[in-house]
Design brief:
With 162 residues, the chain is an alpha+beta fold. It is 15% helix and 25% strand.
Length: 162
């Protein structure tokens, strides 16, 4: 996994590469759910911590949520905020859970990510600031968007039987 620490190391080398390694550093913001780094580590575990709090990316095709087909809701692993509905999930073939829209626009925040010689839109949970993944404009109708999300950033809550 690539962590923010790795990207910061690359940032130190960026004068030698014309700034091509400049990481996306989210602006400091107070979120409704907030813990110290040590508290986040205890709550999330090592792998989820580096994804949610240090903006790492899990390896493709490793998340069980990529193949989750049941009806339900995908919530933020950090704070349980509902982020995505199974009704908006699709198989993008990328190896990460993908959605064409969040449950509500207010559930997801975004920042510009200029890491890895690219300019992308990073998405995060609006309640705790946890890194979710990125959004791209190559998704299906009706939005044309592809929210490419780390499975480690989410928990799945199956719909209750009627």
């Amino acid at each position: 996994m690539t962590t923010r620490r790795t990207l910061l190391g690359l940032l130190a080398a960026s004068p030698f590469f014309g700034g091509a390694f400049t990481p996306a550093l989210a602006a400091v913001k107070a979120f409704a759910v907030s813990f110290t780094p040590d508290e986040w580590r205890r709550r999330l575990g090592k792998d989820a911590f580096v994804v949610l709090r240090e903006e790492a990316t899990e390896r493709p095709f490793t998340s069980p949520l990529n193949n989750e087909k049941r009806t339900g809701t995908f919530v933020c692993r950090g704070c349980d905020l509902p982020l995505f509905s199974s009704a908006h999930k699709f198989d993008s073939g990328t190896g990460w859970p993908s959605y064409w829209q969040p449950i509500t626009k207010a559930a997801i925040g975004s920042t510009v990510d200029k890491s890895y010689f690219m300019v992308r839109t990073e998405v995060h949970c609006s309640r705790c600031g946890g890194h979710q993944g990125h959004v791209f404009d190559d998704g299906p109708k009706p939005t044309g968007l592809r929210y490419c999300i780390n499975g480690l950033s989410l928990k799945f809550l199956p719909a209750k039987a009627a």
